Amino acid sequence: MQCQWCEEESARISQSTVYWELPDGTRAIEITETPTITCDICGMLYQEESLIDELEDHLMLINTKTLPKCMTYQALMAEPKLLKRNYFRF
To answer: By CB neighbour count within 10 A (0-12 exposed, 13-18 middle, 19+ buried), where does 31 fall?
Structure first.
């Protein structure tokens, strides 16, 4: 897999902990076991754009008031949606 930062072919899929600000801006949560691209050459850890979009859309569709301070990526994505889709994305 090619690293988006250094373009070397040493990137691999892993998991990491990320911190994400909730859409209402009231707080951030810790999301563990988040799918991550890791490059051993340049040391970058990053999430693919599609995962970022999926995560941000999901946060717009769930009740974020009840989220704990820390949860796994899978648990977050399993939170029930209040809306069928993000009507705010253009």
So the answer is: buried
Q: What is the DSSP string of 18-57?
A: EEEE-TTSS-EEEEEEEEEEEETTT--EE--HHHHHHHHH
Q: Report whether pLDDT(83) > 80.
A: no
- By C-alpha distance, which of 83, 80, 66, 84 is closest to 29? 66
pTM over 0.90: no
CA angle 78, 46, 22 (to 5 degrees): 45
CA distance 28 to 9: 33
Q: Are 19 and 30 in contact (CB under 8 A)?
A: yes
- Phi, psi of 77, deg, nearest 5: -70, -15
